[in-house]
């Protein structure tokens, strides 16, 4: 377990506010938050699109890519997808700004704080009573012709899948330069422990406690009953290569379900542990197992 809780937050002087796009009636919440923060001596920095949604002046406001460099803490109003998008942007900016998630979505596994408890959670966080979890992230690079084409940092998972047609694709997988298997499947997921309760779980993979230093390699709908998910060391360097042999064969790489790229023949996706981690604020007292029970109905009949 090499990802323990981090030390308490440093003093928060500037707090970024990001809302899920399309949220209705967000103006009152954002204006109320801004006033509450100012009363506590904290400068609210509202992301540009969020300011527009809230009916506020967005002149000079940073966009989501620019927000991490302007704040000490990010408050996300939305669901897990909104939080994932900010976590990935913070890591791409080579920063480790903590994130506090307030759940406006339906599940909210990462955005644990319910809206009615937002101010209580914020007060605990600003007063130094919150716990900061450090979460492993992944660095994925698409390599074409031996040269890097693009790079992404993700919190949950990297998935390499076939195209829209119902065709099985063969995926070659190596771990630390050692050939693992050629999987005939709909795709391959490489998941972090945090992402084990996301796409990996839907595809039949195991739940991995976020403090376990491991990754999950999980074939999606494999064309063999013996192909099962495998838990591998977090230090592993994984390469996933789809073999596109027939006309019409397609493959895509998706990153946290937020971004995706089509792969060409001979492309490979190289994945390893990112040097950056995500710092997740747990402001309210709750254990990981209670979150599993309440959010996923885990272990219920």
* Order of secondary-structure elements: EEHEHEHEEHEEEEEEEHEEEEEEEH
Strand order of the largest sheet: 9-8-19-16-11-12
The count of domains is 2
Mean pLDDT: 91
What fraction strand? 35-45%
**Treating each run of at least 4 consecutive H or I residues as one helix, how many helices?**
6
Q: CATH superfamily name of the largest domain?
A: Probable inorganic polyphosphate/atp-NAD kinase, domain 1
Multimeric organization: single chain
Assign the CATH class of the largest domain: Alpha Beta
Structural class: alpha+beta
Q: What global shape is seen? A: globular
CATH architecture descriptor of the largest domain: 3-Layer(aba) Sandwich
- The total of beta strands comes to 20
- What is the name of the CATH topology of the largest domain? Rossmann fold
In whole angstroms, how far apart are the ends? Answer: 30 Å
Which regions are unreliable across 5 or more consecutive residues at pLDDT < 50?
Answer: none
Helix content: 10-25%
Please compute the radius of gyration using only Cα atoms. Answer: 20 Å
Major sheet characteristics? 6 strands, antiparallel
